[in-house]
Specification:
This protein is mostly beta strands. The protein is built from three helices and eleven strands; from the N terminus they run H-H-E-E-E-E-E-E-H-E-E-E-E-E.
Length: 273
């Protein structure tokens, strides 16, 4: 009986040692994405500015906005990449301040419909160079506000719950990791924004394509502290002119102003994990 007990005890000890060794080996194993995960496992808070051009047949304008941004990013060991981004405008100014093609009782929100939103990217990373070059094609899906003066004029429910876009599309990100401190990326995507606003009076939906180019950098400055900076350019292409139902008598056109392009930048502070 004593021999049996000693045999069982020995087997348990051997199994525990083997399991512990296996666990240590798995946790210290290095995968092909380890170098990039130093930058692409992070969450951050950012502040940005955005300046754009407005256009309509026989009319033009411009706008300036500032926004706050929250970003959560993760590159998994198997190469799956996810990026979730939420933003909200904190200021907006437009010239002209009132689009004469759109008349409303009360406040006008402006000609740029997207005051905030939540978007997610999911892709797979291809390691082109062991520790320096990464290519990540991805799909994108999100929900963004449709809160322009034109949309508010044409709906009976002028609120953020009912007036929104389903946003979907795809793109690719090319990332260059210089070393453990500096990382740079170029991101290009094409998105379609499908308006879900319940338009009345036969007004057209404000659907549009968005072509966005982003050039950014990340800096791992101290332990888990990461700083970020990016600049971006947007080109907007509306699928049809937005003809107002009630233009002002002084308006040069019945067509509402819409964004045609914008340029901006953002700085961020975050932590890696």
């Amino acid at each position: 009986m004593r021999k049996v007990f000693l045999l069982i005890t020995g087997l348990f000890a051997s199994y525990s040692f083997a399991d512990t060794a296996s666990h240590v080996e798995s946790t210290t194993a290095v995968n092909e994405y380890t170098a990039y995960q130093q930058f692409d496992r992070q969450y951050s808070l950012g502040y940005g500015i955005n300046s754009g051009q407005l256009s309509a047949s026989g009319n033009s304008g411009n706008y300036d906005a500032s926004f706050i941004n929250f970003n959560l990013e993760r590159l998994f060991d198997m190469g799956l990449w996810m990026d979730v981004n939420a933003y909200l405008n904190v200021s907006y100014q437009q010239n002209p301040s009132v689009d004469q093609a759109v008349q409303l009782t009360g406040n006008l929100t402006g000609s740029d419909p997207q005051f905030g939103g939540l978007n997610a990217k999911v892709g797979y990373a291809f390691n082109l160079d062991n520790e320096h070059l990464l290519l990540t094609p991805y799909g994108e899906f999100g929900r963004n506000t449709n809160y322009s003066s034109y949309t508010m004029q044409g709906t009976s429910t002028s609120n953020l719950v009912n007036n929104y876009y389903w946003t979907f599309g795809g793109g690719a990100r090319l990332e260059y990791r210089l070393d453990e401190i500096f990382d740079f990326y170029l991101d290009q995507n094409i998105l379609y924004n499908s308006s879900q606003a319940e338009m009345t009076q036969g007004l057209a939906q404000a659907n549009f394509w968005n072509y966005r180019t982003t050039l950014g950098a990340k800096f791992n400055v101290w332990r888990k502290l990461q700083l970020g900076a990016q600049t971006f350019y947007n080109n907007y292409n509306y699928t049809s002119p937005l003809i107002s139902a009630n233009p002002s008598s002084s308006s040069p056109t019945k067509e509402a102003l819409v964004p045609t392009n914008s340029v901006g930048g953002m700085i961020s502070v975050g932590l890696t994990y």
